[in-house]
Automatic annotation (TrEMBL):
Protein name as it appears in the record: Deoxyribodipyrimidine photo-lyase
GO term, biological process aspect, one: response to light stimulus
Residue span, Photolyase/cryptochrome alpha/beta domain: 1-130
Cofactor binding mode and count: Binds 1 FAD per subunit.
GO function term, MF aspect, one: DNA binding
Presence of the UniProt keyword Cell membrane in the record: no
Length: 462
């Protein structure tokens, strides 16, 4: 009898819990179901869809080397999956289905519907995180609402027992049917710098951990330095597992678990943020339905000023660091973390625009778009979320530019119109006495800040 592995956000043959469990039970067949209609509904960026298509093609080759056939089909949405799987499993003589769990509302409902529709056993594994949702709780068995105690608790778990990396499978190679196209190849060009295959992702991760992580804490906030791992896209579709990252990190830097102040320790904390936000969406599914984590902040009368939002989207706000960052996003499908915080703060706290518009725009463009991390990041910036930045912490976009891009290298690389501008005008081009093909600032930051403070203060005082 054949075991079916249904691949989703785990597009790798190494350290894949579902795959290893299925292989222990017998002969394996793989399946990937593309659902472009559902993905569009979830605002998935076309570049991410393209990445998935290419990654599935690579996965097909890795599975072929292990003797595992992979079928790839395209259905429009999740609703079509249970009936399709029932038919497919019967035709292929499948005795059990294996898959790795996803923790969002629609994905959980999809898996429930599949389990109900199939007359065979369905085994779902926790594979995507350092610790599954529900396993990191307070002393009162409640979910954590802020990051730091969550991190402490998770680290204590890791120190007690590290999650194991799965053994490597062996097999006789076979030939594989070609993987069909289910996304727009126009985006191949944007993918050149990203790992699209598990081997490339592993190599990138190892290089980062051996060559760059030591400087991570000191340099990670400077977008021109390109010091961060750039593994977010690979992690978001499971080209590399977070366990592989953890083991390699600890192999090279044993102190990462207890030394928060080191580069490796700081990077581990970022991986734990990834877990944290996945736990949040699982414990508090309301955030998946467009609601603020802090319910009182849903009373804020956000702005929906279309012209201002358009200027932000197009990188025409008149604040160079904001504009360069937004152009990085639109042109490359990725944005540096410090910049994500700056542009999110600007949209919400300077323009007072609903954070949900920014959240959706990010998803429509990010190659690493991940609902939990994105929603968590936006709600943090908007002071509506779990670990929300206190409402009175409002980034000054001019000062952030001076501090984190001091020689203007990043700004100049995305704003050709400011390339020749003298350093002393670069962060405030409106002060340049001559003509300049660059917009005036969309708002007066000081005034906008006062308005936002007053609005939040009124809300908090009821
Ligand atoms: P590194 O600095 O090398 O970090 C390693 C990994 O840790 C990342 O690849 C990522 O998987 C994880 N990570 C790092 N920071 C965070 C964080 N704050 N929250 C959750 N996970 C984190 N990250 C996404 O993966 N997808 C998103 O859609 C996303 N949207 C964001 C939106 C906003 C407004 C903000 C402020 C942050 C967002 N982040 C998102 C988090 C972070 O910006 C990116 O993970 C990071 O920039 C990716 O670059 P890197 O791989 O070089 O990260």
């Amino acid at each position: 009898m054949t075991q079916l592995v249904w691949f989703r956000n785990d597009l790798r043959s190494l350290d894949n819990s579902a795959l290893v469990q299925a292989a222990r039970a017998g002969q394996v067949r793989g399946l990937f179901i593309a659902t472009p209609g559902q993905w569009r509904l979830h605002q998935m960026a076309p570049v991410k869809m393209r990445l998935i298509n290419n990654a599935v093609t690579q996965l097909s080759g890795h599975l072929a080397a292990l003797g595992i056939p992979l079928d790839v089909v395209a259905l429009d949405d999740f609703a079509a999956i249970p009936a399709f799987l029932a038919r497919y499993c019967q035709e292929q003589g499948i005795s059990a289905l294996y898959a790795n769990r996803e923790y969002l509302v629609n994905e959980l409902a999809r898996d429930q519907a599949v389990a109900a529709a199939l007359p065979i056993a369905c085994h779902f594994s926790d594979d995507a995180l350092l610790a599954p949702p529900g396993s990191v709780l307070t002393g009162q068995e409640q979910p954590y609402r802020v990051f730091t105690p969550f991190k402490k608790q998770l680290k204590a778990k890791l120190m007690a027992a590290l999650p194991e990396v799965q053994p490597r499978l062996k097999g006789q190679s076979i030939s594989q049917a070609p993987v069909p196209e289910f996304s727009d190849s126009a985006f191949d060009g944007q993918l050149a710098d990203w790992p699209q295959d598990e081997e490339a992702a592993l190599l990138a991760m190892r290089r980062f951990v051996t060559e760059r992580v030591a400087d991570y804490k000191a340099q990670r906030d400077f977008p021109a330095l390109d010091i961060t791992s750039r593994l977010s896209a690979a992690l978001s579709i499971g080209l590399v597992s977070v366990r592989q990252c953890l083991w390699r990190l600890l192999h090279e830097h044993q102190d990462a678990v207890w030394d928060d102040a080191s580069g490796p320790g700081t990077w581990l904390n970022e991986l734990i943020w990834r877990d944290f936000y996945q736990h949040v969406v699982w414990h508090y599914p309301l955030v998946v339905k467009g609601r603020a984590f802090q319910a009182d902040t849903d009373a804020i009368a956000w702005s929906y000023d279309e012209a201002a939002f358009k200027a932000w989207c197009e990188g025409r706000t008149g604040f160079p660091i904001v504009d360069a960052a937004m152009r990085q996003l639109v042109q490359t499908g990725w944005m540096h973390n410090r910049l994500r915080m700056i542009v999110a703060s600007f949209l919400v706290k300077d323009l007072l625009i609903d954070w949900r518009l920014g959240e959706a725009f990010f998803m429509r463009h990010l190659i690493d778009g991940d609902f939990a991390a994105n929603n968590g990041g936006w709600q943090w910036a908007a002071s509506t979320g779990t670990d929300a930045a206190p409402y009175f912490r409002i980034f000054n976009p001019t000062e952030q530019g001076k501090r984190f891009d001091p020689d203007g290298r990043f700004i100049r690389s995305f704003l050709p119109e400011l390339q020749g501008l003298d350093d002393k005008y670069l962060f405030e081009p409106q002060r340049y006495p001559g003509p300049l093909d660059y917009p005036k600032p969309l708002v007066d930051h000081k005034q906008a800040r006062q308005k936002t403070l007053a609005m939040f203060k009124a809300l908090k005082e009821g």
